[in-house]
Amino acid sequence: MFKFDSMQPSGNNIDIPTANDQYILVINGKPDGPFSIAQLKEHNIKPGDFVKTAAMDDYKEAHEIAALRQLFGFSRQPLPLQYFGSFDQRALASIIDWLIVFGVFVLAAFVVMLILLVVIPGEEYKMIRIGITAVIVALTPFAKLIYNIKMESGPKQGTYGKQLVKIRVCDIYGERITPSKAFNRNAAKLLSVATLFVGYLMCFFNKKQQCLHDMLADTLIIKDRLDV
């Protein structure tokens, strides 16, 4: 049974349809077709209509598909307001990600210290334990930065925390971001923190729910599904 809330903007660039594909078109909230390009013209397809081919995992708005933009002269349009992730979703995802990254370091340090406990005398072991703790504290933020860049620019478009709460990072058109844009976004978080976290609170005062670092990097956080 088709449900309208299963439609979502997709930033996945894999299996982009071509002009020869057959399309399922959502008409009055229900899927119909498949239709050829000529039949889509007869239905007077619009940029915001949801379509899907057999090669696509999710429905996309027509303007999101390069082949349809070229054939029908659609311009790429920013995502509608209901797609944007909320502050509580972002905060929960961030907490989960910090726990994941920190947990990996703690587990690795625990294993190393168990090994060293067997081979190193007591006083030296205490000094090494302090050193390992300092290394964990120093490296965790850098590991978190690399983790964020890799995951947010990857196929899932989000860290494990974001995947669990069903949000992801994209550009203003809902497309997957590049590693360089992911770096800019995460580096700009320093400014969001430097403003005494006002940069994070800015998401409450704009329609796209962008934090300062999102504005600077021209990125969005979107929901994995529509809440309708």
UniProtKB/TrEMBL annotation:
Occurrences of domain RDD (ranges): 86-217
Domain GYF, first and last residues per copy: 25-68
Keywords: Cell membrane, Membrane, Transmembrane, Transmembrane helix
GO CC, any one term: plasma membrane
Pfam family, one: GYF_2
Record has S-adenosyl-L-methionine as a keyword: no
Spans through the membrane: 95-120, 127-147, 187-205
Name of the featured protein: RDD family protein
Natural source organism: Mucilaginibacter phyllosphaerae
Organism phylogeny: Bacteria, Pseudomonadati, Bacteroidota, Sphingobacteriia, Sphingobacteriales
